[in-house]
Amino acid sequence: MKLIKTLLLAVLATLTLTTAFAQDATIRKNLAERLPNLPPIDEISKTPMPGVFEVRFNQTEIFYTDAEGNYVLQGSMIDTKARVDLTEQRLDKLTAIAFKDLPLKDAFTIVRGNGKRKMAVFEDPNCGYCKRFERDLMQIDNVTVHVFLYPILSADSGEKSRHIWCARDKGKAFLDWMVRDVTPPAATCDASAVARNFEFGKKARITGTPTIFFADGSRVPGAIGADRIEKMLASAKP
CB–CB of 32/38 below 8 Å? Predict the structure, then answer.
């Protein structure tokens, strides 16, 4: 009896897998024919909504379709019972970044106290929320802050970022501007790191500033106060 049960389970598993492969093939075929400009599909997977499938492409871009690829939906899938944005959760998972994988060579550091705790932040010099965040961050001790210049607001943001990056003391020039409103003096050098930050941010879906990363890989979009910074630093274990 136990053997028969095991065989039945194996058959069901095989049938399920075969159906999944067939469904995947159907969706890929129909979408490729009907949407010829669609980039290559990376993955097709079931969603919690019956009959709706997630289609992932370009590594982190997704939309939804039915089992035949007849219809396409873009936007957020919300779990109304749990009150959770499932699309946002999925994208957060797809774009999760381990702290060690951040391109720290393209950042400069500001060290306070013993510098044992670590965090990174992507900031636009003309971002008002970033300036407020930096003023709150002045209250935090024993931390190393990796600052990525991320000019996404204007051409002037790019110019200020280059001047800060090329300053003799990047950290001082940055804080002089962000905290004390002292315009960074004009300076020139190889500022290609700023452009690389911009490209990295696009891939990592960093769409606003500040965006903060802690040592455990957790990401916080937007400015947070000193109390929450302390809590995040205390709980962040790499």
Answer: yes
**Domain assignments of the chain as residue spans, ordered by start:** 2-94, 99-235
Side by side, which strands form the sheet with 117-123? 108-112, 143-149, 117-123, 211-214, 219-221
Q: What share of the chain is helix, strand, coil (3-state, %, to 5)?
A: 45, 20, 35
* Residue 94 to residue 101: CA distance in whole angstroms: 14
pLDDT tens-place string over residues 162-206: 999 999 999 999 999 999 999 999 999 999 999 999 999 988 889
Using the 8-state DSSP alphabet, how is residue 101 labeled?
G
**Cα separations in angstroms, 33 against 28, 30, 43, 53, 72:** 9, 5, 17, 18, 14
Helical H segments across the chain, by residue range: 2-34, 86-94, 128-137, 155-165, 170-180, 192-203, 226-235
For the domain spanning 99-235, the CATH number is 3.40.30.10
Cα-to-chain-centroid distance, residue 9: 40
Tell me if the domain spanning 2-94 has CATH number 3.10.450.70.
yes
